[in-house]
Amino acid sequence: MILKHRGVKSVTSARILSVSEVNQYLKTLLETNSLLKNLTIQGELSNVKRAASGHLYFSLKDATSKIDCVMFKNAAMVLKFIPKEGQQVTLRGSLGVYLPSGQYQITVRSMEPQGVGDLFQAYLALKSELEVQGYFDQERKKKLPEIISRVGIVTSPTGAAIKDMIAIIKRRNPLIDIVIYPSLVQGDEAPKNIIQGIRTFNERQSVDVIVIGRGGGSIEDLWAFNDKNLARAILESELPVISAVGHEIDYTISDFVSDLRAPTPSGAAELVAEETMSMTRALVQLKRRLIQSLETKIVSNREQLGRMKKEFLRFHPRERIGDMRLHLDVIQERMLRSVKGRLKNDRLQIKNIEMRLGLMNPMNVLKKGYVRVTDNQGLSIGSVAGLKVDQRIKLHFIDGEVDAEIRSIKEN
C-alpha cells in the first residue's frame, strides 16, 4: 500500500482483505451512520415485485438516479395501499449493503403515498382489487332477519354516533337489546379492534345483526374502514353486517363489502329498528285478517251445519236404522247357510282326493306282491329297454330292498 503524507511517499505492508470483508466493512460503515439509519426519502416506484414470501422488492427513482429497496413481509402487510409502478411515495428506512452482491439498498420500514390524492388512489386501487375478487357481489350478501331482537354495535363507546344510535333504537323499538363492543375507530390499531368485535359476535352468536361504524371525518379519519383484513372479516361473517361510516357522501370499502350500507350511524339505527317495526305491523295486520277469516269461516260452518241437520232429520234416521238392522239379520242368515254348504262340499272333495291318493300309492301295489325296480341313481325302471347285462339294480319290496345284477335280457 502507498501512503501519501505531506508529499512523502512510503511503502508499507498491509493485510489483504477478502471481498466479503470489504462488503462487511461498507455495511457496518453505512449502518452506523445516524443519517442513513433513519432515512426519509421521496421518489417514484419502479419494478415493483411481491415475492411468494410476502416481501416487497422495488426501486425508488427520480429523474436521474434510482436505489434498490426491499420491504419485508411484516412491514408490507400493514400497508394501507397497493404499491404500483410510477406511484410517488414517501418511505422511511435505513441504507445498508446486501452482502452477497455488494449492492447497497434501502430496507423500508414504512411507506405512504404522497398527499391525500395518493391516499384516495390507494382506496380506489383496493376497491378495484376486491371488486374483481367478488367481495362486492350481491349474490353473497345476507338479508337482515325478519325479527331483530338484539343488535351488536362495534364502535367507539364515547363518540356521539353511539349515543344517537341508542336513542333512535330505543325510541323506535324499546324491545330491541343493544350490545356494544368498544373499539377504536381511527388509527393504526382500529382495524384490528373492529375485526375482533365482528369475530366475537360471530363466535358467541348472541346478536341478530352487527353494525360497524363511526361519525364523519376526513379520509384519514375514516381510513380504518378501508382495511383489506377488515373487508375479509366482513365477508366471512356468518351474521349480517351493516356498515355505517361517516356522512351520506362518505364511502369506504366496508360499505361495499357489508350486507347493507347505511348512510350514517343514525341511518343504521333506523334501519335496524324499522325492520322490527315493519314486522310488528305486518304481524298485527296478519292477526286482524286471520281473525276476520276465522269469524267468517265459523259463521259459514254454522249455517252449513244447520242445513245438514235439517236434511238429516228429514230422512227419519231412526226408522232407517231399524230397517237396516233387519236387512243385516237376513244377510247374516244367508251367509251362515252358504258357509255351511261350502264346508260340506269341501269335506266331500277332501275324502274323494284321499281315496284317489290311496289308489295311486305305490306301497299299496307292493303289498300285492309286486316289486319296484330302480337303477343305482334311484330312478325307476319300467322297461327292459336300455338295460345291460351285469348292470346293478335294486328291487324294492314292501318290507325291504335287494341289490341285484342282470344276467340276461329278453324282450317280449
TrEMBL record:
Q: What Pfam families does the database record attribute to this sequence?
A: Exonuc_VII_L, tRNA_anti_2
The UniProt record lists the keyword Nuclease = yes
Q: Which InterPro entries match?
A: Exonuc_VII_L, Exonuc_VII_lsu_C, OB-fold_nuc-bd_dom
Q: Which reaction does it catalyse?
A: Exonucleolytic cleavage in either 5'- to 3'- or 3'- to 5'-direction to yield nucleoside 5'-phosphates
| Ranges of residues in domain OB-fold nucleic acid binding | 17-112
- What span is annotated as the signal peptide, if there is one? none
Q: What is its EC number?
A: 3.1.11.6
Please indicate which superkingdom the organism of origin belongs to: Bacteria
Primary location recorded for the protein, binned into one broad class: cytoplasm
Assigned keywords, A-Z? Cytoplasm, Exonuclease, Hydrolase, Nuclease
- Assembly state and interactors? Heterooligomer composed of large and small subunits.
Q: Which family does it belong to?
A: Belongs to the XseA family.
* Job of this protein: Bidirectionally degrades single-stranded DNA into large acid-insoluble oligonucleotides, which are then degraded further into small acid-soluble oligonucleotides.
Protein name per the record: Exodeoxyribonuclease 7 large subunit
Q: What is the lineage of its organism?
A: Bacteria, Bacillati, Bacillota, Clostridia, Eubacteriales
